[in-house]
Amino acid sequence: VKLEISKVHDAYAAGGECPLCSLMDQAERSYLSSLGGARAMEPSVRVRTNQAGFCPRHYERLYKGENKLGLALMVHTHLAESLPRLKKILEGARQDRQKGPGPREELSAFREGCYLCGLLDTDLSRYAFTVIYLWKKDPEFAPVYRASRGFCLGHFPAVLDAARANLRGPELERWAGETAGLMSASLERLEREVLGFTQLHQASVKSLGTEEERTALARALQVLAGRIMSRD
Ligand SMILES: [Zn+2]
Ligand SMILES: [Zn+2]
To answer: Do residues 55 and 112 touch, judged by C-beta distance below 8 A?
Structure first.
């Protein structure tokens, strides 16, 4: 596994609710912008987008981007390549089958396949592995980790997988205890902060509140949803 030490250090230095949310947001933006450019034309990329296509969320993000021609070319070859499979699924709807996956399951598997999500899954395991590696090997990282807010609920499972694969016995127990403590404290703090946010918005005397108070809802949603909330 390739380590991403400097990126992980930077994400911890920036703080926030979940370092993996920031890293994944950066990775996603850079893939989207490169797919909006010349990368959409690279043969190795085209082979994979023809086959997998994109998930609904990433189609929408790409459609909101600048490169409509590049997207149309990818969508055209993906559709052309997928026609036999799609026709077969639709034909299957005529049969009253009880065994095996039906058209509903087959279509949802088709729609969830995504070139970009595939790249991001690989990045996520790499980042999670690096966090566990640093926690285990770098004595200077330990206090940084303990001062962090743990992880969002969306990214915690990836770190847990990395921990279970790379830590043993008492070490795994110590990591799990430390992390559960950080995350429980975060959830309790966010519960209070969101209440504060509602009070700020209900106050008869309008106050702007502090930066922490203004961002409380976005941060709570990030931890629940597993992604940074943005308006774009
Ligand atoms: Zn996260
Ligand atoms: Zn996707």
So the answer is: yes
Residues around ligand 2, an ion, CB closer than 5 A: 55, 58, 114, 116-117
Residue with tokens 């296509």: 53
- Taking the CA of 35 as reference, the closest ligand is 2
Ligand 2 centre from 48 Cα, in Å? 13
Instruction: Determine the Cα–Cα distance for residues 125 and 1; give it in Å rounded to an integer.
Output: 9
**Mean pLDDT in consecutive groups of 10 residues from the start of the chain, 232 residues:** 92 97 96 85 88 95 90 94 94 77 90 96 97 97 97 98 97 98 98 93 76 92 94 66
- Which residue type is seen at 68? K
The string over 171-185, giving b where at least 16 C-beta atoms fall within 10 Å of a residue's C-beta and e elsewhere, is ebeebeeebeebbee
Task: Judge if pTM exceeds 0.85.
Answer: yes
